Each structure stands twice: as structure tokens, then as C-alpha cells.
Structure to design on (151 residues):
């Protein structure tokens, strides 16, 4: 029998489950706290006895998977604790998947770096439209004036 690559009581770090947030980031599921409770969603009497609602929460400050810049960006956009809840399905397993997917989406949105705007010159057509609008406004105001007494 071949020897196992890791001792039996130590977790294999390569096999550790991770939540894929984007191409660059996958956070270990050990950093995500999952809580279950009774759902107010579909299921009838089943919902009264089954803890199918799942809440996934991620503590941004305590995470070792995020770089300092990522941590600062997530805190600025989503707060120190990112939470996602799912109670859409009767199955706790399916709600767990949904909550983790929603958590990953929120983190991914918080991590997006907006593109810098490059200043451009207004086009000739837009300048002409602006001037036409100004002329129309001037004419409108001129028409509102009292008629001159000289006539």
C-alpha cells in the first residue's frame, strides 16, 4: 500500500476548501463563518422544523487571505464584515451554496478597481449643441421681457 502524502491527523493544505472570489483571490472556507437558522422561506411545515436558512459572514480585518490594499478596498466599500444570507430553497445544502456565491459576488464587487477617467476634449458637435442651447435660452428670456416703450 502506498504511503499517504500527509500524515493522517494533519489536513492537506492543497485540499483545503476555498471560496473563489475572482481570478486572483480565493479565500479559505475556514475564514467564512456559516450560521444556520429556521427559514421564513418556502417549505411549509418543513420550514418550521428545519434550519435551512444559511448566513455566511466574512471578517475582513481578521482575514489572512487579503492583501493590505484589498483589505482597505473591501472595508471602504462593504465594511469590516461582509454578510450574505440565503433562504430561497428548502435544502440547507443548496442555501449554503447560494450564500457562499452571494458572499463571493459581494467581495468581488468590493474589490473592483474603477478605471481612471482620461480627460478628453469636447467634440465640435457637442460644442455646437451647447452654443445652440445657450442661444435658445437667450431668445426665450428675451421674449419674456416687457416690450420697450419706444416700440
Amino acid at each position: 500500500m502506498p504511503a499517504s502524502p500527509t500524515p493522517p491527523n494533519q489536513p492537506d493544505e492543497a485540499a483545503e476548501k476555498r471560496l473563489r472570489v475572482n481570478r486572483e483571490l480565493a479565500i479559505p472556507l475556514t475564514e467564512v463563518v456559516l450560521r444556520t437558522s429556521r427559514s421564513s422561506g418556502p417549505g411549509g411545515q418543513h420550514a418550521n422544523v428545519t434550519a435551512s436558512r444559511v448566513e455566511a459572514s466574512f471578517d475582513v480585518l481578521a482575514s489572512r487571505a487579503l492583501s493590505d490594499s484589498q483589505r482597505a478596498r473591501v472595508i471602504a466599500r462593504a465594511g469590516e464584515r461582509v454578510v450574505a444570507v440565503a433562504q430561497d430553497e428548502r435544502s440547507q445544502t443548496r442555501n449554503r451554496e447560494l450564500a457562499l456565491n452571494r458572499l463571493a459576488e459581494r467581495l468581488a464587487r468590493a474589490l473592483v478597481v474603477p478605471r481612471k477617467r482620461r480627460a478628453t476634449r469636447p467634440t465640435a458637435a457637442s460644442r455646437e449643441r451647447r452654443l445652440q442651447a445657450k442661444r435658445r435660452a437667450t431668445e426665450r428670456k428675451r421674449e419674456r421681457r416687457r416690450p420697450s416703450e419706444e416700440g
